[in-house]
Amino acid sequence: MAPQGMNQLEQRIFSIQKEADFERVALDVYRYQVEHCAVYREYVQQLNWKEPKSSSEIPFLPISFFKSHRIIAGGKEEEVVFKSSGTGGERSQHFVYNAQLYKSAFRSIYAQFIGEIEEQVVLALLPNYLDQGDSSLVYMVDDLIKLSNNASSQFLLNDLSDVEVHYKKALSEGKKVVIFGVAYSLLDLCELNPKLSEATIIETGGMKGRRKELTKQELHTLLKEGLNCQNISSEYGMTELLSQAYSNENGIFETCPWMKISIRETNDPFNYIANGKTGGVNIIDLANLYSCSFIATQDLGRISDAGFEIMGRFDHSDVRGCNLLVE
After folding, report:
1. CB-based contact 271:265 (threshold 8 Å)
2. Exposed e or buried b for every residue in 125-146, given b needs 16+ CB within 10 A?
């Protein structure tokens, strides 16, 4: 059910339940953004794109545009600006007109995939995001920490041994424990060999230049052994999105009703490929109503019957990812 205080199109986005609902709303969001978002409108015009009749016919804006352009609906002023970590150089910027829209999205998605926040203690190992500032992930986790209304919920920066201390305390209070962590920080935690078998551990990706990059499978194998747990969850989100996907096991991500993934050919960005094959990840995030909901990322992935997997990134993605979509 859509939260109170939203306009009609916002309400329809958060009320999507079926594929037919998604298709209708996606086309209306497309028309809104072509009319009101100058950057997206110009991109569509440059392509000489015909009017889409389904979401599969909507063109996707290269994600690199978030580094070079101010993407926001005309007449809107941003309430908050989120910036990427900048590990690849220049930082992407997402100009968010309505922060409450972001909160409504991530709170609903979190409850759907991770559980009710009031029953949890949330611990966060996200030092690089805190150092850089303006992180959408920190904004989200900070809000979840506050909503948990528990003094043990907090960002942990210096002494990683505190993780197990807070974990044991939370369990003694009958709380579930959720640990958000960037990959390299969770690997640092593994060196202490804590016993975290009852925690939900959510890795948020990225070595951020601190350690050698690993495949998701390699990383999760090390984390399960080092943290003494049976399973590692993942969160898939980015600065340019207001919605997230979660994987609760096997690295298979699932999306909320207003988010959809498709896979494009790596050498022909306007052609989709069959399930099970690897290609570029395109994302529809209808919560991005006031920026751009149709984004061609620089991630490589594939779709399965259960959801989607992230396989890696394009080589030299800052350059090639953009070139692919303008050739």
Report:
1. yes
2. bbbbbeebebbbbbbbbbbbbe
AA letter at 58: I
Q: Which of 129, 124, 118 is nearest to 141 (CA)?
A: 124
**Beta-carbon count within 10 A of 181 CB:** 25
- Average pLDDT on 43-59 reads 96
The boundaries of the domain holding residue 166 are 103-236
Residues 227 and 268 placed together within one structural domain of the fold: no
Considering only CA atoms, which of 136, 182, 142 is closest in space to residue 288? 136
Q: What is the pLDDT of residues 63-87, one digit of tens each?
A: 999 999 999 999 999 999 999 877 6
Helix (H) or strand (E) holding 237: none
Q: Taking Cα atoms as reference points, which of 70, 94, 72 lies closest to residue 84?
A: 94
Same domain, 109 and 224: yes
Q: Which amino acid is at 8?
A: Q
Same-domain check for residues 126 and 229:
yes
In order of 58, 70, 197, 206, 228, the CA distances from 225 in angstroms are: 44, 44, 10, 19, 5
Structural domain contains residue 283: yes
In a domain, 163, yes or no: yes
The band of 43, judged by pLDDT with boundaries at 50, 70 and 90, is very high
The residue from 236, 268, 294 where one domain ends is 236
Helix (H) or strand (E) holding 316: none
Domain count, the chain: 2
211 touches 223 (CB < 8 A): no
Does the pLDDT of residue 9 top 70, yes or no?
Answer: yes
What's the DSSP call for residue 309? E
Residue 89 has pLDDT above 80, yes or no: no
DSSP 90-124: SPPEEEES-HHHHHHHHHHHHHHHT--GGGEEEEE
Alpha helix segments (H runs only) across the chain: 8-14, 19-36, 38-47, 65-68, 99-113, 127-132, 136-148, 161-172, 183-190, 216-226, 317-324
Same domain? For 116 and 213 the reply is yes
Distance CA 62, CA 300 (A): 14
